Amino acid sequence: MAHALSQAQKDSFDRDGYLVIRDFFSAEDAARLRAAAAALVDNFDLDSHPKTKFSTGEEQDEHVGDKYFLESGDKIRFFFEEKSLDAKGNLLVPRTRAINKIGHALHVLDPVFKEFSTRSSVRDVVRSLGAFEDPRILQSMVIFKQPEIGGRVGPHQDSTFLYTKPLSAMGLWFALEDCTPENGCMYFLPGSHKTVPVSRRFVRKPDGSGTTFVSLVDEDIQDPPEEDYVCEPTPVGTVVLIHGSVLHKSSQNLSSKSRWIYTFHCIEGRAEYPKDNWLQNADGKPFTPLLT
Ligand SMILES: O=C(O)CCC(=O)C(=O)O
Asked: Which residues of 121-131 are buried (b: 16+ CB within 10 A; e: fewer)?
């Protein structure tokens, strides 16, 4: 396993809840993925698009209940930046500068992202971590963090959105460009996967009218201070492994540089995947095996 994690890396992931690995993929790989993402943005049909904004963090009500979002689990769909549209849904910037993210089945439907997500280096890392028996990729996204208008992603734990019993979600987050404090790099609260329980989950409402959060605990959990988060600038070619329970966030991009990343999340295939989780494959199709 050429890219197997060392014991020190595994210990670091266990301690912090995330692991930054630089020079994991080449600048050419990053350029290929950026070109594939750009082609998708250039070619989707804007006229038939419902102009769904992807609300980044605090104002999640904006997109809940949105059919376009809820049916995106096994499709490639396009979500706009808050500030890219006027109240009538007209674009205020060119389409290449308007998309917040694409999701959620790039790893299935786009050949470039499919190859990258299941290549041997990725498999080596996941296999050597030893946390999964049957890891399944359940969603993938490109997040663009557009220059000047790229929205912040508020503090969250991925298992809130990708809930399994027992918890098993893990993100692999790939820097397709240099990510810096100026253009909206990631911040983590080290060790929070062990100290801050996942206290809610994001579900479809039983009446089909949209989504909501349901509490998993009896008492409110105090949000840890944001000053305690550690800023993690990541050069192009970096992968970050993100434990599903670790608190993380990213800042706004007010700079003139974009910050494109690709990410996908795995869950344990043997864990229970609740039927009311927001993300579902149509017809209950199984999620993509990562190792076979
Ligand atoms: O890339 C970002 O800005 C946020 C990504 C993130 O939080 C996630 O994938 O869980």
From this structure: bbbebbbbbeb
At a CB cut-off of 8 Å and minimum separation 6, what does 258 contact? Answer: 144, 145, 146, 147, 150, 177, 183
* Cα 285 to middle of ligand 1, angstroms: 25
103 lines ligand 1 (CB under 6 A): no
Query: Could you tell me the distance, in angstroms and rounded to a whole number, from the CA of residue 128 to the centre of ligand 1?
Result: 23
Strand residue runs (E) in 130-238: 135-143, 153-156, 170-175, 186-188, 200-204, 211-215, 230-232
The C-alpha atoms of residue 136 and residue 192 are separated, in whole angstroms, by 24
The answer to whether domain 7-289 has CATH 3.40.640.10 is no
Ligand 1 site, residue 268, Cβ cutoff 6 A = no
Residues 114 and 289: their CA atoms lie apart, in Å, by 12
Interval 73-99: pLDDT, tens? 999 999 999 889 888 788 999 999 999
Ligand 1 pocket mutation, candidates 174, 247, 248, criterion most atoms within 8 A of CB? 248
pLDDT in tens, 54-71: 654 544 445 433 788 889
Each residue's pLDDT, cut to its tens digit, for the chain (292 residues) gives 889 999 999 999 999 999 999 999 999 999 999 999 999 999 999 888 887 666 545 444 454 337 888 899 999 999 999 889 888 788 999 999 999 999 999 999 999 999 999 999 999 999 999 999 999 999 999 999 999 999 999 999 999 999 999 999 999 999 999 999 999 999 999 999 999 999 999 999 888 778 899 999 988 888 999 999 999 999 999 999 999 999 999 999 999 999 999 999 999 999 999 999 999 988 878 999 999 8
Give a three-class secondary structure readout of 84-129: HECCCCCECCCHHHCEEEEEECHHHHCHHHHHHHCCHHHHHHHHHH
